[in-house]
Amino acid sequence: MQLYHGSVEIIEHPKILDQQRLLDFGKGFYTTTNKEQAERWAAIKQKRTSKTAKAIVTVYEFDENLLTSDSLKIKIFKQANEEWLDFVVHNRNINSAANYDIVIGPVANDTIYQTLTLYEVGILTKKETISRLKVHPLFDQISFHRQIVLEHLKFMDSYPACGQQLLTVKVSTPVYSDEVGLDIAGLLQKPDAFVPWHPRVCNQDANLVFVLS
User: For position 95, what pLDDT does the model report?
Assistant: First the structure.
């Protein structure tokens, strides 16, 4: 199977690096089977890095037979259910590696991250959150959490991630990020605007990065 990783450089030999950001499945190396998702990741990282950085997608080959191997500890979330929610919220609050070799499951898109934010700050109950999760399509992500397991990722190719429009929005007053997303989407007449990252609650003068789909 082919896997894709979005970054600002070609990564022939993946490594697990310390992250300042808290990730869905914990510290690890993240890939996806969806090219569009990887291109969005690359565009976001480019925006965060510098004006001269390039958005790059690296392509790997991975033997999917390893996913049924008894030698690896693998966790698979088939959908964004209550177990997935607990796991993601836990990892979004603790910067540590998952207790698995590989984790496979949905990756939260803009609407899902907004829902998680509202749940974390106590606005939504777990039941309400799960109900919202069920009505949104999700991309997948496959994360690797041990360096030795990364040796199974075989570098195949890389290409520039083109065609992603980025917009940085400055928030003048403290508001919840879902309100910002709705306002910006309406302003741009882009009801399907993709909002891949935001703080949990937007502080005054915060900068949000939007990728327009």
Answer: 65
Q: How far is CA 176 from CA 30, 88, 107, 181, in A?
A: 27, 20, 21, 9
Predicted pLDDT of residue 9? 92
* Angstrom distance (rounded) from CA 200 to CA 204: 13
3-state secondary structure of 139: strand
Q: Which residues contact 140 (CB under 8 A, 6 or more apart)?
A: 32, 33, 34, 37, 104, 105, 106, 107
Coil, strand or helix at 78: coil
What would the two tokens of residue 51 be? Answer: 């004006």
Give the C-alpha separation, 89 to 146, whole Å: 21
pLDDT tens track for 41-78: 898 888 888 778 889 999 999 999 999 988 899 999 98
Asked if 199 contacts 169 with a C-beta cutoff of 8 angstroms, the reply is no
- pLDDT tens digits, one per residue of 137-169: 678 899 999 999 999 999 999 999 864 444 444
